[in-house]
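tool=predict chain=A
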Amino acid sequence: MPQIFNENASTDIHCMLEFTNKTDKTGYLKIYDSTLFCWSDDLPNSVIDEEDILCRIVCFVSDSLTESTENSVGICSGRFCDMGKDKPVVITLMSKSEFAGDPTHPRFDDIAPAPSYATIYSVGKVVGQPKGTIKSLSIGWRSFDLRSSYYDLEAASKSAFRRYFVIRWYIPAGKRWESTKLPQIDSVIQITGKLVGRVIVDNASSHSFLGCIVSSLNYISVMQSGSGGGSIGQSSGRSESKNVGRSWGARAQKRSAIYDSSLYSSSSPPPKITVSSSSISKPTTTGKKKASSVSNDCSVDDEFEDIEDDIVEDLGSE
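tool=predict ok
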């Protein structure tokens, strides 16, 4: 049965980050500065700004989430929020896996993966795009805006705890999505995709959106009102070869310029063993005497010995 949607759904992120410039807020609350790698070889430069996005990492230290080493690199997952134009995005860390070593060392890339795209997982409501937005690009891609929320534990007042933000999602051109319509306004969807940068808008506009490319989209059945127009969207295969050759050392230099302005193996189950009655050998006399010698005074021994003789005779007859 459909359920009421109260717009408290959230957005998660899975990405590689460098923990830099740590600030100790309290004994358990640590803040780190970082940047999110962004790049797209499909969307025009006139649509997406591919500059790395400033990032603020919020880490609540606990038994399950240890304090990160300053200037280390890790694979991270957490709650995500876009705080708006000219502000760092915020990630409340939920889990991480760090790589030992100095990211600026020439051979650090030998032990850690190269910088890669962030993956966004979001649940939210489709909202209308600002007036004048071109939904269909010249390359055949189409876009829609999705509103999600973030529970801000650092907010100064309780009324500001729940923040809302919008991400613009692009459906690529190609056979995969050719029968997919754009979600209608007020639809509630669950979506996954790649973060590629910040959408370029008019400098005079108060709107600011992060841009993502859709990789999967599912509708959630909830009680909703309102309607919106739909149109055909499409998808394409892409090459990410441009990502090869990126290094953490190069990112350290770029970041400084921005701020100045376990493997598991499983073995196959053991083979099933079947035993036939013909494979059972007759007990030796020595074993028989040993079993009956446990207690010579116990009359039950003689009874067990008689039962054993019957079993042996039955097996021998087979």
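The chain has two domains: 3-260, 277-317. Confidence is low (pLDDT under 50) at residues 224-245, 261-273, 285-301.
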